Amino acid sequence: MLLEKITLLKSLVKRQVLLNAVKSYSSYGLSILTKKTIICGYPPLVMIEPTNYCNLQCPLCPSGNGTMKRPRGYMEFQLFKKIIDEIQKTTAIIIFWNQGEPFLHKDILSMFDYCSKKNIFTITSTNANYIPDPESVVRSGLKTLIISLDGATQETYNKYRINGDIDKVISNTLAVVAAKKKFNSKYPLIKWQFIVMKHNENELVLIKKLAQKIGVDSISFKTVQIYDKNDIVEFLPSNPKFRRYRIHNDNFVLKKNIANRCRRIFTQPVINWDGEMAVCCFDKDNLYKVGNLREESLISLWKSTNINRIRQLILTNRKQIPICLNCGEGVKLSIKEIS
To answer: Quick one: which of 154, 155, 190 has its CA closest to 174?
Structure first.
């Protein structure tokens, strides 16, 4: 949205992080051209996982369906501050998610506030079944609040957001909208995100009308990521234009070929709740070890041999990396053709 982009640009200029962003994206471009890993400066974006616990049981999510192999926990606030203090002069955006529900962390509002006071743009994504204090969310300085809502009725919604309550999502959304009006605040910008699946593809118009009625700032529609041939029958929409995959018999493959490039691994590190740096958010069990921020600085891990080894393989033969075969990087994930 335009307001979001303007706010981010002001943040870049005020904090003199624009040069760092230019250096980072330029080094990525040079890496693609030369097929050699070049890393300049700090990452302009950082994804931080407050927790990998979740209050729902979504069947395609390793946190919700119980298939996640790495330990569960909550990021210590002191570790969070250590990360932010290192990158505050160079990083433009903190993305508060990976696996889990961010609002389950007892210090999540303090995390937003800590970034806000350092003029860092903050984004989080939530299932909104639990928002502890909507007025405090508005006062925290959070800039963008993405709310996952994949159904216009409880029956449809609960088919994927298992143990979720659509009435709670709507009431919590309304509470944040009301708090924004109370404090005369434009933020956080409220975005509903609707993952289009077989059981809800007939409710797209209904959810658009509901979003307008409630007063959210925008609504987006996203293709579903599947993992198994059984998911084709259960979750993939009947309408091919709502899919990111081509289907042949029992097999599925991304519509777009996998290119030897990845913007995220060159610009956006992922820090899990325990301080472990992951190569990306698709490495859900942290199989590709980089290092831990409890013991090392972010910049040393960001330029380390461990992560550069993966970057180099991506530049030359990305298909060799299993987690890249079903990755959304470079793939059109949003759906615009909604009428």
So the answer is: 190
